[in-house]
């Protein structure tokens, strides 16, 4: 139930051209279309943290959670989409540390 509510909040933040996908477990990937500047990605990440930090209502209880976010901006040197996901995943684990 928590993951479903998180996904709904994430989708509510994103533009129609962006993509929200659950990779597995409690990890989500968000692909921001036409994001060329790090500042734009940072603003979105801040909105996500703010939104996920608000309490969730689950079975009549308030549940609190947080988020660790890794950001990777596309550069032409990436050979495959998996390279971008790898770098975002690495950034997320650094954020967790």
Give the gist of this structure.
The chain has helices at residues 2-13, 38-53, 81-96; strands at 19-24, 27-31, 56-58, 61-63. The protein has 97 residues and is of the alpha+beta class.
Describe the protein's topology:
Layout: H1 2-13, E1 19-24, E2 27-31, H2 38-53, E3 56-58, E4 61-63, H3 81-96
Shape label: globular
Radius of gyration: 14 Å
Strand-pairing-aware structural class: alpha+beta
Low-confidence stretches: none
Strand order, sheet with most strands = 1-2
Gap between N and C termini: 27 Å
Number of strands: 4
| Integer average pLDDT | 92
Largest sheet: 2 strands, antiparallel
Which sequence of SSEs, written as H and E, runs from N to C? Answer: HEEHEEH
Q: Could you estimate the helical fraction of the residues in percent?
A: 40-55%
- Estimated share of beta-strand residues: 15-25%
Describe the protein.
- With 97 residues, the chain is of the alpha+beta class.
- It has 3 helices and 4 strands.
- The longest helix has 16 residues, at 38-53.
- The chain has helices at residues 2-13, 38-53, 81-96; strands at 19-24, 27-31, 56-58, 61-63.
- Helix 1 packs antiparallel against helix 2.
Question: Main attributes?
Answer:
97 residues; alpha+beta; two-stranded antiparallel ribbon; 3 helices
């Amino acid at each position: 139930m928590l993951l479903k509510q998180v996904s709904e909040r994430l989708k509510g933040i994103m533009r129609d051209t962006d993509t929200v996908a659950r990779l597995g477990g409690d990890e989500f990937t968000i692909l921001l279309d036409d994001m060329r500047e790090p500042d734009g990605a940072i603003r979105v990440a801040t909105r996500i943290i703010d939104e996920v930090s608000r309490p969730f209502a689950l079975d009549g209880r308030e549940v609190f959670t947080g988020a660790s976010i890794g950001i990777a901006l596309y550069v032409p040197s990436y050979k495959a989409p998996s390279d971008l996901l790898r770098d975002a995943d690495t950034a997320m684990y650094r954020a967790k540390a």
